[in-house]
Design a protein that fits this description.
This is DUF6535 domain-containing protein. Pfam families: DUF6535. This protein has a domain of 156 residues. The chain is 80% helix and 0% strand. The protein is built from nine helices and no strands. The protein is extended.
């Protein structure tokens, strides 16, 4: 990897051992350089893995979308049947007009029995909504992964061999503070959540699709998918109730933060409602006193 100077962890450990004798700004630069290499390489490796999975998942999902989106359109067979039915009605009514001696048949009567416009089935709409949403989320995750790798590359360009170690350290500190201020680490942690949500939506769409095809297959697959989603839900919710639980994925961390924020938000809403009620009570009291006092 170019931004990490193609060094392995063992090589960086050897370099760190060799730079232990450095002092001053040279030692500080070497230390933070090794620290940033380790941290940013972890982020970059995660994004590489995410890109590979997002590509495979999008390819699989596209194969399903190609098969399901025609369900939103009338088939050629239905259109042909409608045209044949309309033609038969026109022929029957034309012969009836000839036999009865009526010179012409009102055009409105020929169209009275025309079929209603095509309406896709509810299951087809649900399947395509889930599949297309899942596809968009997987592509969004891939796009964010590419952007994050660009952010990492930009961040790691703070060390310049043409600058003094002190200047490099100051530039790195400025970028590190910006990295923390803009919560880039939190943004990186949310990207895998896009793929998790996309996977869940895809599995739900598969269940609905199978229920429209065969009940036995649908029951078997639904049991497996329900069990899988139940395990994922348990792993995601456990850190909310057990602080030392190690199952802390980005989604689990989001739930933990939300569980901490909900009591504060509820207290804020309660205090605001109490304050608003007190103000309204005071206004009503002053209004009644002015009305009856006068």
């Amino acid at each position: 990897m170019g931004i990490f100077r193609n060094r392995t962890r063992a090589q960086r450990h050897t370099d760190a051992t060799n730079t232990t004798g450095l002092s001053g700004w040279d030692g500080i630069e070497a230390h933070i350089n090794d620290n940033d290499d380790d941290k940013m390489e972890g982020y970059s490796d995660d994004m590489d893995t995410l890109l590979v999975f997002a590509g495979l998942f999008s390819a699989i999902l596209t194969a399903f979308v190609v098969q399901t989106y025609p369900l939103l359109q009338p088939s050629s067979t239905d259109i042909t049947n409608q045209l044949l039915a309309a033609n038969n009605r026109m022929l029957v009514q034309g012969f009836a007009a000839i036999l009865t001696g009526v010179p012409s048949v009102p055009f409105a009567s020929l169209l009275a029995d025309d079929p209603s416009p095509f309406q896709p089935h509810t299951s087809a709409r649900w399947i395509n909504c889930l599949f297309f949403t899942s596809l968009v989320l997987s592509l969004a995750a891939a796009l964010f992964a590419i952007l994050i790798k660009q952010w990492i590359r930009e961040y790691m360009e703070w060390s310049s061999p043409l600058s003094l170690p002190r200047e490099n350290v100051l530039v790195r500190q400025w970028r590190f503070e910006s990295w923390e201020t803009w919560s880039i680490a939190a943004v990186i942690s949310t990207v895998p959540a896009f793929l998790e949500i996309a996977m869940i939506l895809f599995l739900i769409g598969v269940m609905i699709l199978l229920w429209t095809l065969d009940d036995i297959v649908a029951i078997c697959v639904t049991v497996v998918i329900a069990g899988f989603l139940l395990v994922v839900a348990i792993f995601t919710v456990l850190p909310v109730f057990f602080r030392r639980c190690p199952y802390k994925s980005p989604t689990a961390w989001a739930l933990v933060l939300a569980s901490h924020a909900v009591p504060h938000f509820a207290a804020f809403c309660l205090s605001w409602c109490t304050f608003y009620a007190a103000v309204m009570r005071k206004e009503w009291a002053s209004g009644f006193s002015d009305k009856f006092g006068s």
